[in-house]
Design brief:
The structure is a single chain. With 237 residues, the protein is α/β, with parallel strands linked by helices. Helices cover 39% and strands 22% of the residues. The protein has 2 domains: 2-119, Response regulator (Rossmann fold), CATH 3.40.50; 127-229, Arc Repressor Mutant, subunit A. The chain has helices at 10-21, 33-42, 59-68, 84-93, 105-119, 153-165, 172-180, 189-201; strands spanning 2-6, 26-30, 47-51, 75-79, 97-100, 127-130, 133-136, 142-144, 147-149, 170-171, 210-213, 217-220, 226-229. A hairpin with a 2-residue loop joins β6 (127-130) and β7 (133-136). α6 (153-165) crosses α8. The two termini are 14 Å apart.
């Protein structure tokens, strides 16, 4: 699962990262409404966790703009407002669910799972595929040539980003931001993670899919390109 958290409370964002990334999910974050609207409009996410009170654009206005633009990503709103008129305003703007602060992370997780189950239309799964490399975005299972691959969460996040962009390249800056936001560690840790990813995805196989694009970043490309499919084989949005 790839989640976008639009929230200006840094402590809450850190807790969400720790909790959901610890379960193998991919989490991106935006600290204000303008950044959140841009990310939600230009990238593909499975779910958006949206705070009501945000700098720049509040959550209700942001959500209204997303829905008017045709973005149907499931959205769960977080807010300290618990009055019925506030809940109605959130739902009318296009929220799929509503969680009042403070809340327990397991409850948020269960609500997200329910949203994804409904959005999946009764259990259909989306799979990213390049040649014989497959990434199930719901179960987080990765395989190549039918052989399961076991990846660390950081490598799995990099793989998902590369597959989503394939056959285009993803810049080193974008990959580093996905792992460490604005606080990358010292040294070339990104290259180390790419090395580990290649060890799992490419080393045991004759055809190498992960390519270095000089002065830009990396990409995954194969003869069949990238395909997003459901379990039944039909194109999935």
């Amino acid at each position: 699962m790839r989640m976008l958290v639009i929230e200006d409370n840094r402590r809450l964002v850190a807790n969400l990262f720790d909790y959901f990334e610890g379960r193998g999910h991919v989490v991106d974050a935006a600290p204000d409404g303008v950044t959140g609207l841009h990310l939600a409009s230009t990238h593909e996410f499975d779910v958006v966790v949206l705070d009501w009170m945000l700098p720049g654009i509040d959550g209700v206005e942001l959500l209204d703009r997303l829905r008017r633009a045709g973005c149907n990503v499931p959205v769960i709103m977080l807010t300290a407002r618990d009055e019925l008129p506030d809940k109605i305003a959130g739902f009318r703007a296009g929220a799929d669910d509503y969680l009042t602060k403070p809340f327990e992370l397991p409850e948020l997780e269960v609500r997200i799972e329910a949203l994804l189950a409904r959005a999946a239309g009764g259990g259909r799964r989306r799979v990213l595929k390049v040649d014989d490399l497959c990434f199930d975005r719901d179960t987080l299972e990765v395989s190549r040539g039918g052989r399961p691959l076991h990846l660390y969460p950081a490598c799995r996040k990099l793989l998902e980003l590369l597959l989503l962009a394939s056959p285009a390249a993803v810049t080193r800056e974008r990959l580093a931001h996905a792992l460490w936001a604005d606080s990358p560690p010292d040294g070339d840790m990104l290259r180390s993670h790419i090395y580990e990813l290649r060890r799992s995805v490419d080393a045991p196989f004759e055809v190498k899919l992960i390519q270095t694009v000089p002065r830009i970043g990396y990409r995954i490309a194969g003869s069949s390109g990238t395909k997003l499919r459901s379990e039944s084989g039909h194109a999935a949005g």
